[in-house]
Design brief:
Layout (H helix, E strand, L loop, with lengths): L10 H29 L6 H26 L5 H28 L35
Length: 139
Amino acid sequence: MAVHPVWVVYRPAHLHMNLLGFVSMMIFGVGYHIIPRLAGKPLYSRRLAMIHLWIGNVGLLLFAPGLMLQAAAQPAAPFVIGIGATLSAVAAYCFAWQVWRTLQEVEVTPARAPEVAADASRVRRPLRVLDEHTPVTEG
């Protein structure tokens, strides 16, 4: 767009390719990596994660060209944009459902015993929790 200013009409397609294609997929990928580890249990459905990946990418592959068609004033543009946007929204819903179902039955405990590591030098002592019955000493 900087080289050829006429291409500014394609800015919405460029923006959505970056946001849907890179940023949101990065967030989803990090979420799929971290959430099961934080929850301490496996992901609700690996199959749903793959479905999410495919629906999201197909939605992007329709949405961004639909925006380019809109810039060229093509009559099919609203239809293509609508299908792509709907698929992208369904993909985001799949992620939200996956996270909700993964975290749904996680037991929350106030404190967990530290796990024994293979290397004893890497074991950290747990923080001491103070309550109203614990005397506080200076120093």
